[in-house]
Amino acid sequence: MPQLSAGDTAPDFTLPDASGTEVHLADLLATSREGCVVYFYPRASTPGCTKEACDFRDSLEAWKNAGYAVVGISPDSQAAIERFATQQSLPFPLLSDPDHEVMEAWGAWGEKKSYGRTLTGVIRSTVVVGKDATVRLARYNVKATGHVGRLRKELGLD
After folding, report:
1. CA–CA dist 116, 37 (Å, integer)
2. Are 84 and 100 in contact (CB under 8 A)?
3. Residue 114 above 80 pLDDT?
4. pTM over 0.90
5. Nearest C-alpha neighbor of 122 from the set 133, 111, 132
């Protein structure tokens, strides 16, 4: 699936959170002032994914003040994301996409290189969606460390 670019319409989604409650992109957009930051991560409780999630957690107040909701999506089970959210005190929803349908629709699932090998899996990505469901910014193959800070700078939050 092709990756999203600024100006594209973000595909709507409905996925369960850690408690099994269905979360809809349309609802996240309706309850935020500016839009939603949707980030895709490979696996809960791994070093890189923990760093990225904690960076979002630690800067959540800045995201909220700027009018953005934050949501993370991975192929992990509900039990795995629940443990991860609890262990790391993550105050934003983590969603489970085990069939990677949403990740495919958003261009965050596909071939990637890891330690010189080519494999298929989650492409660490972040997409900022405006209130009107238009993609404002899309970043693919991002590094876990420092990514959230760069994103905030690009959006003028710092």
Report:
1. 30
2. no
3. no
4. yes
5. 111
